[in-house]
Amino acid sequence: MAQRAEQAQSGQGAEGGAGGGVGDAGGDVREVDVVVIGAGAIGENAADRASRTGLSVAVVEAELVGGECSYWACMPSKALLRPGAAVAAAKAVPGADAAVTGGIDAAAVLAYRDEIASHYDDASQVEWVEGAGLTLLRGHARFTGERELTITHDGTTHGLRARHAVIVCTGSVPTLPPVDGLADVDPWTSRDATSAKEVPGRLAIIGGGVVGVEMATAYAELGSQVTLLVRGDRVLAPAEPFASELLADALRDLGVELLLGAETRAARRAGGAVELDVTGPDGERTLTVDRVLVAAGRRPGTADLGLETIGLEPGRALEVDDALQVTGVAGGWLFACGDVTDRTHTTHQGKYDARVVGDVVAARFASGSGGAATDSNTGSDASSGDEEPPLAPAPSAEAEQGAGPWSRYRATADAHAVPQVVFTHPEVAWVGPTQAEAEAAGLPVRAISYDLSAVAGASVHAKGYVGRAQVLVDTERRVLVGATFVGPDAGEMLHAATIAVVGEVPIDRLWHAVPSYPTVSEVWLRFLESAGL
Ligand SMILES: Cc1cc2nc3c(=O)[nH]c(=O)nc-3n(C[C@H](O)[C@H](O)[C@H](O)COP(=O)(O)OP(=O)(O)OC[C@H]3O[C@@H](n4cnc5c(N)ncnc54)[C@H](O)[C@@H]3O)c2cc1C
Ligand SMILES: NC(=O)c1ccc[n+]([C@@H]2O[C@H](COP(=O)([O-])OP(=O)(O)OC[C@H]3O[C@@H](n4cnc5c(N)ncnc54)[C@H](O)[C@@H]3O)[C@@H](O)[C@H]2O)c1
Questions:
Q1: What pLDDT does residue 226 have?
Q2: How many CA atoms lie within 13 A of 324 on its CB side?
Q3: Ligand with the closest atom to the CA of 196
Q4: 313, 35 in Cβ contact below 8 A?
Q5: Where do the record's region annotations for Disordered lie (predicted)?
Q6: CATH topology of 30-61+121-172+300-412 equal to that of 182-296?
């Protein structure tokens, strides 16, 4: 590990990497085997895996190591959402409800959020990167040609050359919809909403996607009067329609004003407040709020990456194949994973792609000098000491060359079994296609739906439990292709479905997977009974 780091740091000498040609680098050029651009969760994992056959790997990061997920997305947003779920869970159990005597303490929630976001300090993640034997380079990376980059940090520019491969993991940035005057009212993006220091009295949210519904839930529970402006006819449009309906009811119960079919036309300041002109099914209306959160989607982080120097268009997503190699660039040296590919939009699926691309790079460009596996959480040697030998062999060029779907070298699940948990109250969790998507793809599916409140475990879990689940069965292959769960803690029920879908477990075999009594998971038994078993 240490050897890899040293090689990278002394690259301009020991590794024979000195020389010009790397943009405006002033002759100061490092050379490593592999460069990873972006040290978000995805870049960190790709770099760690890529280093497993002894390749020297440098990770370049312009902001905080850990990326969006750690400081401005998954972790802080869940910290804002968890208190509301915990209070609601206690209030739903007779006897326990008496213990809830006050409302949510917004200031304490924001302090808890800061703690979960490591107080916006990446020291522990830097320690992990260094412990894994990777070289961290602070700065903004830009391509200047094939496998060649410049890194700009604090006004100084250095060159960096990858001997074998570059993996782009630069994530995504929020989009600002073309609403007249919106940019002038200092709108919040998801970064501002997840790192806010105070709770606005009146909050308008533009966009009813994942960020919109999660932040509407969090801020309503923290005490804001929230208006959710949804362009389409339902919230959370990628989910099953029944999930959108249950979620819309829950948001209204929380006091969120839902404006469906709403188009925001213009925004302007009005004293200390903001006015929004909104057109909807009931005509025109002007909304006065204290803050506007824009949650209208994201675009890939490729605008300022020098893509034009390698024949790609800046601003566009990097298209990749199932080995995460960028298509449209010759030479087999460019890879990408995470949000920047537009192929995955969650941390867990991006990290799956990162494991695949890391193994592909480790196999294709193996230096033969290493081969020790590291634990991606600790950076420690997983194969040292008296431990049992690993059950899976280290990446190898031979294995990768013949690799097919569902091998560790191909991100096959991206097209079949992507799990998504939306941490609203109730949670909405699904894997695989929706019924409409499956039918559009020509799959012979039958949907089996069940009211979760009718399961014995639900009556114990919460009085007045509200939830519904649905599985999609391929009637020809007799396997599950998708599932959706809506209810308290529904996200915790999802992984069983993901395993059934990925494993293509026949429903006749699933019959033998007996859910424990009295858990809400007993719904699995009801599904199979409804299928005729
Ligand atoms: C509010 C919110 C909540 C979310 N909640 C969840 C959730 O609960 N669960 C979930 O699975 N997903 C969630 N997501 C999605 C998840 O955050 C992303 O899918 C994930 O962060 C993508 O990781 P990434 O590494 O591709 O990008 P990022 O995390 O954005 O990392 C990219 C890194 O690259 C760096 N970078 C960019 N350009 C350069 C450059 N030129 N040079 C050097 N460095 C550069 C950036 O500084 C950044 O650190 C959420 C997203 C949002 C917005
Ligand atoms: N729990 C999680 O896994 C989680 C949580 C938050 C975000 N994310 C990810 O982050 C990404 C970004 O989330 P997001 O919610 O910003 O994007 P999104 O694409 O999920 O939703 C954006 C929504 O905004 C709407 N929209 C676009 N322009 C609009 C306009 N002018 N007026 C009104 N509505 C408009 C779109 O129709 C869409 O419904 C997503 O890919 C999501 O998967 C994941």
A1: 98
A2: 40
A3: 1
A4: no
A5: 1-25, 367-406
A6: yes
**Domain range annotation of the chain:** 30-61+121-172+300-412, 70-118, 182-296, 426-530
Per-residue confidence (pLDDT) for residue 340, from 0 to 100: 98
Q: Which residues of the chain have pLDDT under 50?
A: 1-25, 369-383
Instruction: Give the span between the Cα atoms of 211 and 206, in whole angstroms.
Output: 10
Residue 464 alpha carbon to ligand 2 centre in Å:
30
Atom of ligand 2 nearest to the CA of 339: 41
Q: Which fold has domain 30-61+121-172+300-412?
A: FAD/NAD(P)-binding domain (3.50.50)
The residue assigned the tokens 């997840």 is 194
Q: Residue 61: CB within 6 Å of ligand 1?
A: yes
Ligand 2 lining (C-beta closer than 6 Å): 177, 206-212, 214, 229, 231-232, 237, 264, 295-298, 345-346, 420-423
pLDDT at position 488 is: 96
d(CA 140, CA 152): 5
The predicted pLDDT at position 386 comes to 66
For residue 247, the CA-to-ligand 2 centroid distance in Å is 15
Contacts of 478 (CB under 8 A, 6+ apart): 506, 507, 508
Q: What is the pLDDT of residue 241?
A: 98
| pTM of the model as a whole | 0.93
ipTM confidence: 0.98
Contact 370, 53 (CB under 8 A): yes
